[in-house]
């Protein structure tokens, strides 16, 4: 049964989530992050929030998980840097959904 929420990112950012009862993962490198993603389904994780710096390197693995009902993978950003990866992902989703990136463009870009 899928009943857990997990967070993957840097220890200094996500360890407070452990106090809230969430499962936390702090991979040392991208290979460890890939192993964690492979194990999410077996561990009963329904939702995994992944820090945006892992989104692009784990794109293939995340795409494979998107074909399944659970776990749902969602990216998050923090205060430390801009979220260009999330913007690109939203632009890609907008293009796939509507055929245009007009939903993801800022007001100043035409």
Rg, Å, rounded: 15 Å
Order of helices and strands: EHEHEHHEH
Q: Terminal Cα separation, in Å?
A: 46 Å
Strand content: 15-25%
Overall geometry: globular
Average pLDDT over all residues: 83
CATH class of the largest domain: Alpha Beta
Provide a count of the helices: 5
Question: How many separate structural domains?
Answer: 2
Uncertain stretches: none
Mind summarizing the main beta sheet? 4 strands, parallel
Q: Kindly name the structural category.
A: alpha/beta
Could you give the order of strands across the largest sheet?
Answer: 2-1-3-4
Q: State the CATH architecture of the largest domain.
A: 3-Layer(aba) Sandwich
- Let me know the CATH homologous superfamily of the largest domain: ATPase, V1 complex, subunit F
Number of strands: 4
Task: Kindly report the CATH topology of the largest domain.
Answer: Rossmann fold
What is the share of helical residues?
A: 40-55%
3D structure, described in words:
The chain has a 4-stranded parallel β-sheet with strand order 2-1-3-4. It is 42% helix and 18% strand. The chain has 2 domains: 4-79, ATPase, V1 complex, subunit F (Rossmann fold); 81-110, no CATH class. The protein is an alpha/beta fold and 110 residues long. The chain contains 5 helices and 4 strands; from the N terminus they run βαβαβααβα.
Keywords:
alpha/beta, globular, 42% helix, 110 residues, Rossmann fold, 2 domains, 4-stranded parallel β-sheet
């Amino acid at each position: 049964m899928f009943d857990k929420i997990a967070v993957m990112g840097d220890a200094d950012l996500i360890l407070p989530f452990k106090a809230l009862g969430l499962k936390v993962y702090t991979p040392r490198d991208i290979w460890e992050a890939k192993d964690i993603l492979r194990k999410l389904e077996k561990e009963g994780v329904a939702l995994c929030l992944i820090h945006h710096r892992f989104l692009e390197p784990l794109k293939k693995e995340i795409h494979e998980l998107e074909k399944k009902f659970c776990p749902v993978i969602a990216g998050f950003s923090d205060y430390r840097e801009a979220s260009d990866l999330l913007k690109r992902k939203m632009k890609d989703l907008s293009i796939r959904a509507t055929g245009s990136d007009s939903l993801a463009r800022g007001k100043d870009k035409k």
